[in-house]
Amino acid sequence: MVVDYKKLGLVNTREMFKKAVVGGYAIPAFNFNNLEQLQAIVKASSELRSPVIIQVSKGARKYANATLLRYMAEGAVAYAKELGCKHPEIVVHLDHGDSFETCKSCIDSGFSSVMIDGSALPYEENVALTKKVVDYAHQFDVTVEGELGVLAGVEDDVVAEVSHYTKPEEVVDFATRTGCDSLAISIGTSHGAYKFTPEQCTRDPKTGRLVPPPLAFDVLAAIEKKLPGFPIVLHGSSSVPQKYVDIINAHGGKLPNAVGIPEEQLRRAAKSAVCKINIDSDSRLAFTAGVRETFDEHPEYFDPRQYCGKAREYMEELYKEKIKDVLGSDYKLTNID
Ligand code: G3H
Ligand code: 13P
Ligand code: ZN
């Protein structure tokens, strides 16, 4: 028996992406592993009337229990309404699905969107696996994200030392043969809070901070030319905000040389066919900043609501900044009552 996500009040990504591509903004895709992250995501997106993708990775399912996560994500719709957002547009998405079986299990349990990440496979195997997931998912109007090109960094248990940009000459064949609804590409972003080594960066002479190399906007432009209007996804798009890194380091943490994607570059990407931007590490940084600061200032605290409460405040602030100042998805619900 397949749970019908529409009966849960969820939506798939199709209309959302169409509007975002035309409107020149991107939908936030925020990962969550726990209650406080989910609360902050729903609060920020509801108050700003932004469509939102709530995504869970294989690691999140293992950490928090897949069944529990799914019911929590379902609760997001009711919570958004309780917060006064009468017509929320919420997608529950599997991030980096690694097999047909994982995707099927998510589709069967009420996810409205899945990613099948065959990017580490030989091209023909990636096509075959992605098509198999699409054929199953589309029977239930679940949308599918595929990936071409390899990001440097850590994805679940897979570590790639170097990135391989997406080859623009492959995208039409891939999208046509797989029937996928959106495509994650590699143009220089990477997962985690250390996206570039100091050797890959220059230093700002005034602040001494690392300045990363620019994203490959020429590759993005070539992909857009081949697939006009097709929804493009950027993974590894945390900007690693200095303010949270500074709070962490001021309260006993040690994150030397953490560096992300500059926000101006994400703003530029959001105005193009990039219509989904994945952010996980920034939420982890905001959470950790809240916890470290609280413990440092109040060594007597031992109630998780005290330090997780501060962490939740910081995450809500972060999500709101992303929505308003970077992705431009605020007040983009079809019905903003
Ligand atoms: O793409 C990776 C996401 O940040 C998920 O990370 O596998 O540690 O949950 P995770
Ligand atoms: P970050 O590590 O940059 O937050 O990327 C998250 C991501 O791509 C999730 O799939
Ligand atoms: Zn990712």
Write up this protein:
This is Fructose-bisphosphate aldolase. GO terms for molecular function: fructose-bisphosphate aldolase activity; zinc ion binding. Its EC number is 4.1.2.13. Zn(2+) 2 binds at residues 117, 147. With 337 residues, the chain is an alpha/beta fold. The chain has one domain (5-326): TIM Barrel (Alpha-Beta Barrel), CATH 3.20.20.70. It contains twelve helices and twelve strands. The protein has helices at 14-23, 35-47, 58-64, 66-82, 100-108, 123-138, 168-178, 217-226, 242-250, 263-270, 281-297, 304-327; strands at residues 27-31, 52-56, 90-97, 113-116, 143-148, 153-155, 158-160, 182-185, 202-203, 210-211, 232-234, 274-279. Strand 4, helix 6 and strand 5 (143-148) form a beta-alpha-beta unit. The longest helix is centred in the last third of the chain and has 24 residues, at 304-327. The chain is globular, with a radius of gyration of 19 Å. The two termini are 35 Å apart. The structure holds glyceraldehyde-3-phosphate (G3H), 1,3-dihydroxyacetonephosphate (13P) and zinc ion (ZN).
Give me a quick take on this structure:
The protein is 45% helix and 15% strand.
Jot down its keywords:
337 residues; eight-stranded parallel barrel; binds zinc ion; 12 strands; globular; binds 1,3-dihydroxyacetonephosphate; binds glyceraldehyde-3-phosphate; 15% strand; two-stranded antiparallel ribbon
List the helices and strands and how they pair.
Blueprint: H1 14-23, E1 27-31, H2 35-47, E2 52-56, H3 58-64, H4 66-82, E3 90-97, H5 100-108, E4 113-116, H6 123-138, E5 143-148, E6 153-155, E7 158-160, H7 168-178, E8 182-185, E9 202-203, E10 210-211, H8 217-226, E11 232-234, H9 242-250, H10 263-270, E12 274-279, H11 281-297, H12 304-327
Parallel strand pairs: 1-2, 1-12, 2-3, 3-4, 4-5, 5-8, 8-11, 11-12
Antiparallel strand pairs: 6-7, 9-10
Helix pairs in contact: 2-4, 2-12, 3-4, 5-6, 7-8, 9-11, 11-12
The protein binds glyceraldehyde-3-phosphate (G3H), 1,3-dihydroxyacetonephosphate and zinc ion.
Pfam families: F_bP_aldolase
Protein name: Fructose-bisphosphate aldolase
Binding site for Zn(2+) 2: 117, 147
